[in-house]
Write a structure and sequence with these properties.
Radius of gyration: 22 Å
Family: Belongs to the adenosylhomocysteinase family.
CATH class of the largest domain: Alpha Beta
Low-confidence stretches: none
Protein name: Adenosylhomocysteinase
Pathway: Amino-acid biosynthesis; L-homocysteine biosynthesis; L-homocysteine from S-adenosyl-L-homocysteine: step 1/1
CATH superfamily of the largest domain: Adenosylhomocysteinase-like
Catalytic activity: S-adenosyl-L-homocysteine + H2O = L-homocysteine + adenosine
Oligomer: single chain
Main location: cytoplasm
Shape: globular
Number of helices: 17
CATH topology of the largest domain: Rossmann fold
Number of strands: 15
Largest sheet: 8 strands, mixed
Structural class: alpha/beta
Amino acid sequence: MNPVNFDISDIKLADAGKQRINWADSEMPVLASIRERFAKEQPFSGQTVAACMHITTETANLLRALKAGGAKVVACASNPLSTQDDVAASLVKHDEISIFAIRGESQEVYVSHIDSVLDEVPTITMDDGCDLVTRLHTVRKTNISQVIGGTEETTTGVIRLRAMEVDGALEFPIVAVNDADTKHMFDNRYGTGQSTLDGVIRATNVLLAGQVVVVAGYGYCGKGVASRARGMGAQVVVTEIDPIKALEAVMDGFRVEPMAIAAKEGDIFITVTGNRDVIVEDHFRVMKDGAILANSGHFDIEIDLKALERLASGERRRMVRPMVEEFLIDGDSGPIKIRVLAEGRLVNLGAAEGHPAAVMDMSFANQALAAEWVVKNSQTLKSKVYDVPREIDDEVAKLKLASMGISIDILTDIQQEYLTSWNHA
């Protein structure tokens, strides 16, 4: 038996998981180069890294890089539907990394797995949605004194953390990896755009061409979804609450409407706001028969599922395909079938495989380097949310370009001097 604690679905899946992890690794050259350096320098010697993240092939390669750097690594899922069970098994068997994650686990098991990770007494946290850090700051406060810092991967998590900082509740430094340019400009836009539509198509086999796709939210994730949906022939409607983002969507050529109007027109709805109650009962009642609802925001609260369950109580809800649940409700103009994908959770992970490895290469390179920065600077960091240092962001971009065989120009000394002076004629 492996000398690590774990709770996974089936250890027999390990060999299949290893093949898929290696496949992803071949698409992640930046992280591979960092792993190679970590193995030589051992920057995490003596550290215990606790990660609450999607247990996918890409995450596996991040965890392997941290272990190569000398860390004891423990991990749990950041979403009950995002675990790839074969990957979890491979990490336990082949890498001797403690994993507490089972695809489809209940909310109770999900929370118990977070506690199992915290039982390993982490010194560094890696979060994807802030659930681990929230647990540390509420139920498991006795573990905080051991933590020197952490990182956060998502927009939702960073919003939570900044609110904690403002309230004076944050008790250790966190690096907002999500806000790095080489993360949100690529992972959020290109990764979410492609993987979300991949999830919708895998779940439904629907033809996007000619459909009216309503995208709720026009941040980087929404931009990616809207762009890719249009590229596949859909008519895209954007809903927003931010006037600047709404204006940007208009200038990008999309129709912008309130959800109350868009609800009557959409064939497919995709929420990517990071907020709650984006699609609610009044919207359900006016939707087209057969409307498809998907969420690609971090938590399952963007679609008001409790209201939908109440409207379709009794025998009027059923599974019609894997990851597709149909609700029959009484709409304003008669009966309406509404189809919800992946339980309203992240559709790109619940119904597909998440972001492509090539884009996660940059995100997880940022995670690894940000964690190393925390270790190096732990004595001087304060309990606040830090941006990823610019030199890390630039280094990740340079490494990615090099891996793609792309070179760029470099400023001459004269050009550099011109850009940093004010008295040139």
